[in-house]
Amino acid sequence: MKYLLAIYGDEKAQENIPPDQQEEFMAGWFKFDEELRSSVNVLAGDGLQPTGTATTVRFKDGGTVTSDGPFAETKEQLGGYYLIDVDNLDDAIKAAGMMPNLPFGGSVEVRPVQVFEQ
Q: Any idea where the domains of the chain sit in the sequence?
């Protein structure tokens, strides 16, 4: 079964990590990525550029309207994702529970992918 692991964290807090600790923080992510890919079927996974680079598209007055930035102001921002294929929700939760952002106040939303039959 496919699950999306949506990775959330506080961009401002991450920006304030001292440079010497940034390397350590990223090393934790690289190690996690390697371990995850060796233990489950990772279909995709990437980090995202900061929310300041986002564009939101909406439908209004019969057409699309774009605006700079994310859709909503929140304390946590979507920073990346993994799309994995595992046997069950427990396996997806186990993978999410190993993410290095969790000790820094981050969170991971685990959501099954909905498959549409045509």
A: 2-112
Integer Cα distance of 82 and 48 in angstroms: 11
Tally of CB atoms within 10 A around 108: 23
- Put residue 74 in one of left, alpha, beta given phi > 0 → left and psi -120 to 50 → alpha: beta
- Measure the CA–CA gap between 78 and 73, rounded to whole angstroms: 11
Q: What is the pLDDT of residue 73?
A: 65
- C-alpha 47/C-alpha 98 separation (Å) is 16
86 contacts: CB under 8 Å, gap ≥ 6:
1, 3, 40, 41, 92, 95
Report which of 23, 36, 25, 44 is spatially closest to residue 97, judged by C-alpha positions. Answer: 36
CATH of domain 2-112: 3.30.70.1060
pLDDT in tens, 35-54: 999 999 999 999 999 888 98
